[in-house]
Amino acid sequence: xxxxxxxxxxxxxxxxxxxxxxxxxxxxxxxxxxxxxxxxxxxxxxxxxxxxxxxxxxxxxxxxxxxxxxxxxxxxxxxxxxxxxxxxxxxxxxxxxxxxxxxxxxxxxxxxxxxxxxxxxxxxxxxxxxxxxxxxxxxxxxxxxxxxxxxxxxxxxxxxxxxxxxxxxxxxxxxxxxxxxxxxxxxxxxxxxxxxxxxxxxxxxxxxxxxxxxxxxxxxxxxxxxxxxxxxxxxxxxxxxxxxxxxxxxxxxxxxxxxxxxxxxxxxxxxxxxxxxxxxxxxxxxxxxxxxxxxxxxxxxxxxxxxxxxxxxxxxxxxxx
Length: 321
Description:
This protein has helices at 40-47, 69-74, 91-102, 106-120, 135-147, 165-178, 191-197, 215-222, 236-244, 276-285, 300-308, 316-320; strands at 2-11, 14-24, 29-33, 55-60, 63-64, 76-79, 153-157, 183-187, 200-205, 208-213, 227-233, 249-257, 262-269, 290-295. The chain is an alpha/beta fold.
């Protein structure tokens, strides 16, 4: 659906995007991440036709953004970080205006806009001035304008910025729903949100792609050994000794003891092999109840910090080896 090949962008002598290449498959929700100044916004502006590249190409649904701009842009709905809203219009007036710009047929317009407003849940504020809407509703109107014309690709730049936790959850749910009908590129600094929503992530730093893969695969790559936290009821010293005797266990260290007679222990194995079954059976053999066991693999935040610090994984093939 989206093909970005050898994309480079200079601002005068300054290199903003350095020969990047990646694709986005049809129906995929891709997280596009990077620190400030990494070239992320420049890439998104080239992708949506707001900027031209110094070299390289961007194809949307088979159409080159420079050679066939109208056909390429027809396939894109774009929500910038600051939604381009006309505050003195009502939500309905604004969407009708956008429909005019995008050439939506008048015969289909009423039904089309009604469906969009229902999906983003702004039907009840359709006739209110945008300037009188809350931040959350304004963001929904911004997403609605990106959906007008039913583009195959939606590019959402920081769609939950400035929203409260409830609104963030609502927008996150909406993005998941959009992913069932559209290809979505999501840029966000809220990394748990990206982990929860996206099928795959691309991380860019200093103009170069430093990581591309699913969060799960990147977590395996950046976590050279498996690690999990275990809470067990029983004698602490004996538990630790038993854990250390299990083949593959690299370390077992106590991180806390509770008055109830349980201990919390971090267990690390020296390979990627999952040893939780062995741990379960060992604890059961001694009748020491496991109260909790949870993975402590690298989070997207850990991956982001390592990748942008120079610990790069630039291809999915490298991760899978």
